Amino acid sequence: MLLHEDLTEQIIGAAIEVHKNLGPGLLESAYEACLSHELCGLGLSFTRQQPMAISYKGMVLDAGYRLDLVIEEKVLLELKAVDKVDPIHEAQLMTYMRLSGLRVGLLINFNVLSLHTGIKRRVL
User: Among positive and negative, which fits the CA dihedral 27, 17, 22, 25?
Assistant: First the structure.
């Protein structure tokens, strides 16, 4: 069984519902707002645009980074609305997971015809 498998299945189902209703072509912020609505409907706790400090050489620095969505304090969602997910987007997710201490992350790109092709699940 995958780590937090039931939770990630619920999140993916909610993202598919959003994509089914909106389709591709909107801004990331629109998908985030609608996905938040779906997550509320599922009774899941989450934070939007959670600040993430960076620890550097023993200092904690506010560098202005924000985590798109953190679900149940277990799963990090990095949302995109781009033509193509590049390796740097996956690296960004992994770095955010490492810095935040979250072990499971979903990279969801809504700018695709079928959302199944726009989802990547990663575990640290």
Answer: positive
